[in-house]
Predict the structure of U6 snRNA phosphodiesterase.
Amino acid sequence: MNRGALSLLSNYGGDSSDEEVPNGRVSVKRCASEEDLSNKRLPVPDIICRNSVNKDVPIDDPSLHNGHIRSFPHERGNWVTYVYIPYEPNDLCIDELIAHIINSLSQFSFHTMNNFHISLTRTVILKHHWIELFIKSVREKLSSFRKFVVIFDSLKVYCNEERTRTFLAIRIRSGYDTLIRLVENLDNCLAEFQLPPFYKDPSFHMSIASCVGDFEKEVAEMLPNLNATIQKICINQSQNNWYNYVTHIECKCGNKLFTFNMN
């Protein structure tokens, strides 16, 4: 090492003595302040912020399902649930009959229901951790019921509790006593979870079409003539479409489907 380098080291040692610094060492890196760190962080892209806020929160768009408005706001952990008797038409005659009915009421913009069923409970909200216990209770309450026949009757119009939707339905003429006993047993299941029972003095029916708005009064005035026409049509159709042989009951819970076979 030449004399110039030794001179520089000597001057450095004299200006900054190890005795002035604990442990005899000094870090040459400056501690970054919080302000410096915040300035150096890259901003989160807007698209990620939007996705994180809206993640798993469905957007209710009535235009995607014939104007149907959600009765319950979506909330994580809540499962929309109802119990019902499903109905599968035996042939295409029932579809033709419904098409005729809808055409006769064209001013109300009715749409055929996606699936046909007879409700046995209200639509209620179950917490996720209740589902297993609720299904177990329903299965126990329905275990003693045997298969039975439901016979359909004439048309009737209904409106939902919010008065936002009108339903055209076929009333039940036979099988009423069994339906009442089913509802009583299911009401007991609902009571275990402090959920509301089915309607008092229920009018059992199968909805076949619905439209947006409250048109119960207007449609009811047209039903006598429409029922007379339907009776004439049914004479020429198979009677197999005018009853339902009930072999099982279903429970829709969110996106889960549970089936309860009857004896």
